[in-house]
Amino acid sequence: MAGARVDVRTLRRMPPPYVAWGDGRDFALHGGAAVRTSADGTFLTPRELDAADQYRIVVSADGFLSETGAWLAAGRKRPLAFPDVVLRHIRTLEGRIVDTQGKPAAGAKVVHGDERNRLSAVAGSDGTFRLEGVLDGPGCLFVEADGFRFNGRAAPPAGEKAAIVLTKDGEPRSQRLKTLAPTLGLKERKALAARVLEPAVRKALAGGKEDERASVLEVLGRADPARALDLLTQETIEGAHVKDALRFGAARGLAAGSVEEAKAVAETIREPQLRAETYLALYDARPADRRDCLAQALLNARAVRAAPCRVILLGRIARRLRDLGDAKRADDVSREGEALARGLALIGPGGHARGVLAGELATHDPVAAVALVGGLKESASYDHGHEAVAVALAATNPAEAERVLGLLGGRATAVDRSRSLASPYDAAAPDVCRRMTVADPGRARRLAARIASPYHKARALGLMAGALANAKPDEATALLREAFATLAAHDGGKDAVPGAWFASAVGLTLVPIAESADSSLATETFWRAVALRAPLRAGERAQELSDQETALLALLAARYDRALARSFLEPLARRAADVGFMRPFLPALALSDAAWAVAVFEALPDGPDKERARPRLASLLLLDGEERWREAQHLAALSHVDDEDI
């Protein structure tokens, strides 16, 4: 691009112990003349840069959004070469806002948001508005006006005007959100999964580390049970554990079509632990003979030699027995696990197993449950165990649940606290509040009020709303509005770090709750969540944060609006070579459009990262029904403590 203006900023190096910080200052070139790019888009400043300092450039041009480069140390190498800068077009966006009767909504506030900026305007007396400087690309429009529901929609492409119709409070919506079916059926997605996995399968069959081979072949079993069973008959696979992993996957892959065939495969698994896991997976597929699957899981769990693994399995089986209404057998199985758990170590796998069982044991013996985890030495196991107990007690013994919740953090070291994005209390309290709301709403409110993190507090309020959705929808609606007010009042851009929560992602996880409380509220909740997307933050990792939030938005929005999710993902897909292995990106692609996900993945550069990602992508493609969206919540770090993760 010729004629673009290039301004230079400098950050002077400071002598120890001082450090340079901030956005620097303008660097005045000799004579004050502006630097402009030449016909080939390059530029050259006078030879005036100090080798001891750092420099960055700010590039601007009429009709484009200005861009700021990264800081570079000048050094003694000449010339100092900056990476290419890409300028993006900006445009003017116009539109009109009316009510359902066609009358102009004068005074309505309209906001355009994208990954870079938020621009606002107010509708005139005729309902029209004009926004200048809008980034030419995917973005959203949000409209608020007194007496009307919050409105959101994708911004129209360049050259089109926005026509927005507001619905008055109390008026029914013409369109309501609903969970979308996958773009492809399970059969087609299994074929894609097998295609993605094939290079990894060939490598696994040729040899390598046993655990890596087992992981790949287990996914193959789910994607293509017939091929998995055929491979087993050829006796070309080495390693008993690898063969069992293949059988485990094949049984899970067969369960949707024939539980009897799946059970026959399960009986050929040699390892008792994996055989028990297989029967638990078959139980979760909800066959007619669920009780028999659970009985077989228990039989095999008792044969597991490793005590921590046996304790964990007994806890999971007891929980399912309780779900079936068989409280006596559940109590007996959890007591069996307790007797074994008391002899386990207080650290490592033993500590973890104690915590898992304690959550189930607490339902009928809270004193024994607390005793089981009270002596744990490691902060993670200690907190997880006490959290599980507090959640289990919340609905039946709120006072004791509050007491146990207050014990969290009792083993945390200064290092633990420095690494944590939230206090143990903040992380655990939302699920405790959820379970406590019906039994003791006042106490649940007090616990939520003590949460310091706005993300966790909003999450708690939203989960409380979910608990009240059926019995008290008006109270649930009020709690949801309070949750969004909490998120909107917090400027996440000031303290966000990669891996942290984002207000927009927390908000989107509340949409299913809004749907159950008041289906007409779901659409408004969805767009309020999207509107919480933060513009590009300042700082060295600004783009990484923006990319993470964009991918998470797409991951969670795909449940209701696939076109919007794709609009978020397309800019990332164009930079797939840079962001392709960022944690939320491939899952967001897989859950929004399976075929597109595979196409983007296959175009990624070959290398170790791509090979490691094959089993994960294949597993995502195999998810079906509600498990797709449970996985999305796990990926957003927003799952419940009583969602099994072991």
Structure description:
The chain has 28 helices and 14 strands. Helices cover 52% and strands 11% of the residues.
How are the SSEs placed, and which strands pair?
Layout: E1 5-11, E2 25-26, E3 35-36, E4 54-60, E5 64-65, E6 67-68, E7 72-73, E8 88-99, E9 109-113, E10 118-122, E11 128-135, E12 140-144, E13 151-154, E14 162-166, H1 186-206, H2 210-223, H3 225-234, H4 240-255, H5 259-266, H6 272-284, H7 290-301, H8 307-323, H9 327-341, H10 348-361, H11 366-374, H12 379-394, H13 398-405, H14 414-419, H15 424-436, H16 441-449, H17 454-468, H18 473-488, H19 503-508, H20 511-517, H21 519-531, H22 542-557, H23 562-574, H24 576-579, H25 585-592, H26 594-603, H27 608-622, H28 627-635
Helix pairs in contact: 1-2, 1-26, 1-27, 2-3, 2-4, 2-27, 3-4, 4-5, 4-6, 5-6, 6-7, 6-8, 7-8, 8-9, 8-10, 9-10, 10-11, 10-12, 11-12, 12-13, 12-15, 13-15, 15-16, 15-17, 16-17, 17-18, 17-20, 18-20, 20-21, 22-23, 22-25, 23-25, 25-26
Q: Could you give a quick summary of the protein structure above?
A:
By secondary structure, the protein is of the alpha+beta class. It is built from 28 helices and 14 strands.
